[in-house]
Amino acid sequence: MRAPIFVRHSDFEEHPVSEMKKRAAEFYEHMKRRRTVRDFSDRAVPREIIEHCLLAAGTAPNGANKQPWHFVVVSDPEIKKKIRFEAEKEEHEFYHRRAPEDWLKDLQPFGTDEKKPFLEKAPYLIGVFAQNYNMDESGEKEKHYYVKESVGIATGILITALHASGLATLTHTPSPMGFLNEIMGRPSHEKPFLLLVVGYPEEDVQVPDITKKSLNEIATFM
Asked: How far, in Å, CA of 39 to CA of 205, rounded?
């Protein structure tokens, strides 16, 4: 077994406590303004923005540094049309046959249904795939660890980076999502994690009137 190699962490920046408090508060205020939207503009978004946000996602902590994720960025109108067609088929089954009544009741305040026009209108769809393992150059399986946790963290960073760039997002999870492997050309050992819709929000877009839980409700200090 190869001995680990360590290098000095020269990128860490420590700040005075007053600056730390200021940064933490400002970041919270910034993230408070992030909202999921379902009405997107078709305005073009420079690819360079998406690339840098993906690179930010790739910095996420992950099991044994296997980086078990792959992102497929779709801007081609014909491919987006295929994705919408397949997604709406699954969503129709969900809303009319699969979903239990309590789930549908919880969704009512959001006004969602099987129609997903944003899958065609938004400039980008990003398929997030979780790699349960990888194939090395000799064709041997390379096991990955804490895959869902790692991909979840990377996706959170991606959403945060896109928000910081001035873009809106929507996490879309039609179930099942196996059609994404075929349309996006990904191997069977990669599992679709979610489909991220990315772009500018439509002008005068509306969002549900909801609130977030308080600190006391989401955290315990011991």
From this structure: 6
Q: Which two tokens stand for residue 57?
A: 């996602």
Q: What is the pTM of this model?
A: 0.95
DSSP at 95:
I
Spell 105-115 as b/e; 16+ CB within 10 A means b. eeeeeeeeeee
Q: Parse the chain into domains and list their residue ranges.
A: 43-200
**What are the angstrom distances between the C-alpha of 117 and each of 14, 42, 80, 114, 180?**
46, 11, 10, 10, 17
| Element containing residue 179 per DSSP (H, E) | helix 179-184
Maximum alpha-carbon separation in the chain = 59
Q: Read off the pLDDT of residues 202-213 as tens digits, 9 standing for 90 and up.
A: 999 999 999 999
For domain 43-200, the CATH architecture is 3-Layer(aba) Sandwich (3.40)
